[in-house]
Amino acid sequence: MAIDRAPPQFYALFVHKLAIGVLGASGYAGRELCELVARHPSARLAFASANERVGASARFGGTEHTFVAAEDARLGDAALVFSALPHGASAQWVSAAHAAGAKVVDLSADLRPGSSAACVPYGLTEHARELVRDAEIVANPGCYPTVTLLALLPLIARGLVAPGATITVNAASGVTGAGFSPRRELMFAEVAEDFRPYAIGNTHRHLAEMRAVLAELGCDADLIFTPHLLPVARGILATITVPVAEPIEDVLAPWREHYAGEPFIEVSAEIPALRDVVHRNVVRITATVAAGVRTPTIIVVAAIDNLVKGAAGQAVQNANLLLGLDETMGLPA
Amino acid sequence: MAIDRAPPQFYALFVHKLAIGVLGASGYAGRELCELVARHPSARLAFASANERVGASARFGGTEHTFVAAEDARLGDAALVFSALPHGASAQWVSAAHAAGAKVVDLSADLRPGSSAACVPYGLTEHARELVRDAEIVANPGCYPTVTLLALLPLIARGLVAPGATITVNAASGVTGAGFSPRRELMFAEVAEDFRPYAIGNTHRHLAEMRAVLAELGCDADLIFTPHLLPVARGILATITVPVAEPIEDVLAPWREHYAGEPFIEVSAEIPALRDVVHRNVVRITATVAAGVRTPTIIVVAAIDNLVKGAAGQAVQNANLLLGLDETMGLPA
Amino acid sequence: MAIDRAPPQFYALFVHKLAIGVLGASGYAGRELCELVARHPSARLAFASANERVGASARFGGTEHTFVAAEDARLGDAALVFSALPHGASAQWVSAAHAAGAKVVDLSADLRPGSSAACVPYGLTEHARELVRDAEIVANPGCYPTVTLLALLPLIARGLVAPGATITVNAASGVTGAGFSPRRELMFAEVAEDFRPYAIGNTHRHLAEMRAVLAELGCDADLIFTPHLLPVARGILATITVPVAEPIEDVLAPWREHYAGEPFIEVSAEIPALRDVVHRNVVRITATVAAGVRTPTIIVVAAIDNLVKGAAGQAVQNANLLLGLDETMGLPA
Amino acid sequence: MAIDRAPPQFYALFVHKLAIGVLGASGYAGRELCELVARHPSARLAFASANERVGASARFGGTEHTFVAAEDARLGDAALVFSALPHGASAQWVSAAHAAGAKVVDLSADLRPGSSAACVPYGLTEHARELVRDAEIVANPGCYPTVTLLALLPLIARGLVAPGATITVNAASGVTGAGFSPRRELMFAEVAEDFRPYAIGNTHRHLAEMRAVLAELGCDADLIFTPHLLPVARGILATITVPVAEPIEDVLAPWREHYAGEPFIEVSAEIPALRDVVHRNVVRITATVAAGVRTPTIIVVAAIDNLVKGAAGQAVQNANLLLGLDETMGLPA
């Protein structure tokens, strides 16, 4: 009976905690990362950099942490460094951290497929698990590509997408996807009771990343991607229309087979909603056959938390692999 | 100078006001209708029926009105009757009001194209203005069909939709579109911070209405329609992907030409948002060419207030035509 | 019958429109003012200044207007100028506009009671109507003082507040009350699903204004004022606890008497809510006796739209008086 | 190093889990309870009753559970039973569960102070810890009394409230406080962008509970309590004005001393906000001196999650004591 009373901290005493650093800790994704690291059973937050908030402090995992300048972060002390620095500013810090001996997960777009510097594994974990496990640096996918590609992979892998088809992706994201810097169009009185698309006409910068992965997989489909801004804080939901080569009898089978045993992928006949996935490192997926059309077409709906599975959570999932830990460790499923 | 001080009521003294009745006045669309009628410069609210609220009262146009039972409504006294009764219950009251001598605008689906009883003009005003003007009964379009069809008509009319194409319509609606009856899934704590599709797989009942109109216009395109529930009170935004027969140079030209001079249609290069259209009887439309795809494709975005242009406002627009009044009268543009 | 068809614009042809200017037109109150002026039956928007948006344009009253620099505004051409400039920056422009021959309504705090420069009538219209009518410059009240003072005046005027009492004012405001400048704490993801007080301990700058008016009326009550930030765009609701000298039998009578015939004050036994007042130039008030306490105490609840009755609407109400127009002209009741 | 990899489930194998039942599991508080029980390291969810959803299932703690009828719940198998049944219906089930041998935490008002049947300890845990530890049945406090009383206790215990004073409590709650049954006034389109008080004039049923505790402590202050409905899902914030017998130099000292070492009470100079407390079993409190008034007055602000510290969380806290477990077990701090 005595063991009933022992708090989790008791066991923690015996656990060696790995030093983990976070660069760019003051944005939404950076803070989410710090929180996950601070609560991770096998990690401790060694440093958190935030150049515009140096000296300020914040609570992560119930403990006060003081932000340092990136220049002052002791990169070499960390077993692994996450970079949540802005696109363009991240690549050099990834190199610096790696040169200092740390493994690195880069949440920026700098090293992702479609970028000029793409040369490290693309950490869409369920797709590239073995590559990630052997890597030293991983490019963490963007939020929209995560939900879109995880939704499409089973169809692509099975050659089910109709040749030359156009795949239509309509996605809607909560405002944390637009960053933590104050901008008028993100103010409460501007966003509440509103809804609007942006980057229409296939101009969103995440398209290159998605197309590169499709091309790599030999899928020649065109992609039309239209993001929308939702009056919610968190979450992305994508509604995807895919012309298929031939009718599929058991419409969920491709996902059920492809993702069998995956701890963070939930395939279900129920329609996903944001509230099913927020604050969790999961993607929820359903698929259905479009009735009453001549071209056999599948409608896939997938949802994630843009800050968790779409950013910090997937980054920790990749970090777990890089560090030889259990992939699910410290992640809210 | 004296005329400066004369309040609008002054002129109203000289204006003959037509008696207008509303059946089914307690739902969101019914109340919006009562308000528009009560503020209409040439109309007065002769009766408002609400069977579950008989004897209760509500303010419309700043004046207290008492709800009557439909049975007690003096249909014959009205120049025109709006029916905002539920689908299935409306058709018989439309007949009764017409038999009593009133013109009728029916907001239910009972008489719309695609229904078995469709035999009256379909009041998509900008499309069927002349038919409406000569009618005695008009079937007012549903909210999703209004925004979708007004967005598509210029392409269809010009034969620009690629033959055999699949048109993908993703639409998102505020919760007033789901009605005024208390349901758990519409409660604040269930809807806030959420977003989800419903009726996926082309199962929404509005599809019949949209397809019937497309067919009537000789458009053989397939339609895939996926509605979503937004955490906002009002508004519908539709993002529509249309494969076109050939590239269009001036992408807005079809809409600008088709809707030239229309008082309630705003074509613009700006991307529409819900807040541009709520509480207004307008549809805002933009279109853009999808970049980086082989099949020439246009993305059309259109937004309306589901209760105004998508219901009560368009109903008043039709009523104005039926009554020989100026089409814009009493409508917030 | 012909007159049925004449649109409101018909009558407008005969109406001389007064030139009205707005300084500081880009904030929430400034834009609301421009809209009210542009739709006012006896006014036209002569200029709208917005120093950080010079050359940009916006639609007011359905017409495009181009923002000018304050320096370029032709103050002398205007019959009346509204200043919605920031506190501190406004007073000098009020003087300049007045020197140029215009009447002025100043929406800033610069000339309000409690400020060092207070020397013009305080435009709490229902309280100071005659003073305003004869003035050339009026200091328009702040949003919190408007709702608080209108709620308290009938008790104060009747000497009903207990001598030496402490009046407790808890008020909650939508985020437009915090201004249009982007600030992190006003972003959607920070405000949604939150609620918090601010300036606790009687430190809000509006207190001086409220106390000055109380003192002027000979009311010696102490005031404790705690504002809160609501996750809504518009509206202020104040819940006010007032110890009274003796029990009041007909608790609504003081308000009903005091405000008899007032077009913009709604006294009712129904509890006011924000949605009763938004987009309207009204204050809704109820009062009730606190049960089960030894000190006779009245709870007064009042609600306004902070941008209309709490700012731009009341400013137009005052302008109407200054210009010898009907006080209600151009105002949404 | 091996121990690094052992998942938490590993240790759970050695832990005896106590059987816990939940009556009335389908409301917001009931579901929150089931979730806390299912995730509790020393408990397992033995049954969850929900009379209107018998046979339906829901996921708690990641596992599917099927609702039973209360009549079919095996009360005698449970070490402890929570009753989240409606007021009036709960007391008889509390007796039945107790008669069957279970300890009971009753979340209804049936046995609370101020009710006719009050005869069991009132589980305001920080106030009555020793009584609860020795009890078999505990009446769990209401949400408003929890936040109000925890905010006031330090002042009352120190005799700091001015004799004969009136304490003014303005509290605002998220809509989950109003229950899970569909009601029109709780629908999204009715609540969003709104704010309103209710039960004004000291008529809320929670007042009896608060007054009874004050009386028991010898505090003769009058209480004026005005609740408000917020457009948020969760959380209560109370702003409380307390006339004090004499000025307090270190205004936070009473709370810091009174609650020293309390794991679930956070006293801070920072102003509490709902987002600091949601999904956590804590109350956050600050206090400040009202400036510029003759009667020395303290403003206390306190916030809780109405479903956690205000209901299910505090219920588990009490259950931990009743069962001899660590008080903090299974609770999110």
Largest interface in this structure: A-B, 51 and 51 residues
**CATH superfamily heading of the largest domain in chain A:** Dihydrodipicolinate Reductase, domain 2
For the record, the CATH architecture of the largest domain in chain A stands as 2-Layer Sandwich
Biggest sheet record of chain A:
7 strands, mixed
* Mean pLDDT over the residues of chain A: 94
Number of domains of chain A: 2
Structural class designation of chain A:
alpha/beta
> What is the count of DSSP helices of chain A, taking H or I runs of 4+ residues?
11
Strand content of chain A: 15-25%
Question: Span between N and C termini of chain A?
Answer: 29 Å
Poorly predicted runs of 5 or more residues of chain A: 1-13
Tell me the quaternary state. Answer: homotetramer
Provide the gyration radius of chain A in Å.
20 Å
- Output the strand order for the largest sheet of chain A: 9-10-8-11-14-13-12
* Record field, number of beta strands of chain A: 14
Which topology of the largest domain in chain A does CATH recognise? Answer: Dihydrodipicolinate Reductase, domain 2
What does this structure look like?
Four copies of one chain form a homotetramer. Chain A is α/β, with parallel strands linked by helices and 333 residues long. The first copy, chain A, folds into two domains: 150 residues, NAD(P)-binding Rossmann-like Domain (Rossmann fold, 3-Layer(aba) Sandwich); 164 residues, Dihydrodipicolinate Reductase, domain 2, CATH 3.30.360.10. Chain A is built from eleven helices and 14 strands. In chain A, β1, α3 and β2 form a beta-alpha-beta unit. In chain A, α3 crosses α11 and α6 packs parallel to α8. The N terminus of chain A is likely disordered. Chains in contact: A-B, A-C, A-D, B-C, B-D, C-D. At the A-B interface, β8, β9, β10, β11 and β13 of A face β8, β9, β10, β11 and β13 of B.
